[in-house]
Task: structure prediction
Amino acid sequence: MTSVMLRDMPDATEFGPTARRFWQLTEPIHAVVYFSPEPIAAMKTAGYRGYWMGYFAQRSAPLGQVPPEVVHAIFYNFSWQRVSGALPDAWGFAPPRVALDARRTSTAAALRRQLGTLVDSPDFASTVDLLERAALSAPIEGRPMYAANRSLETPTDPVERLWQAATLLREHRGDGHIAALTTAGITGRQSHVLQALTGGNSREVYEVARDFGDAEWSALIDELRDRGIADADGQITADGRALKAEIEETTDHLAAAPYAVLNAQEQRALSDALLPLARAVVHSGDIPTNSPMGLNLDDIG
Result:
């Protein structure tokens, strides 16, 4: 699959590993919007009822007031019950613009707390410039979440710019990941089971964060077993591991385009500059060790 999908993509082999490393460094910066107290409180103050209504309001706000079916399709792996339980009701409490403003200022407040004096470094502005240049360079075709966030006005505050650039890169990668999963014939709900079976998070993480019950989990195991991805005992097979590795490789290659705009020296400089920022976010303790993001925080150090 990978060789066919990437045949006409220049520099796919060169930039695939680069894309994975930058994901590891930017995902924590983006993820403060889900886990830090400032954004969670801001969504509540904006009027949204409960964590999940705030989550779907802020993340889908760049799309506008689209029907919940559209959000369910684009987000890919949530249960319909969770999406429809938040939307469109959220917009009766506060419109998308309120959610966008709240997340922009609250994520910056969280990052300022976590980063401390790193924000005052003379290199901080140049780091944001490089990250933003990469984030704004990707093509938008076939990338609905990236395109929606790309349509937003670029903020002027440097910390807000940092978060928005990390978010653009995250949603660009996410759009590509969904394309890779779809091409592999893995549904959104199956993807969680596949992640758990291949040594990712435990089943319990998905039960809490993605509303899995015993019946659905067992049915998904049966579906993967029918394809030879899981064995009779519900464990991953060699074919299943190979498929998961191929999906991840394809995701990395599909996420490579933004970084091709930077030369090798700029890539190294950006990676070196992002590492202490990502570490500061992780060391704040806001980001949980186990979450559906699939990020190993030990890779950041």
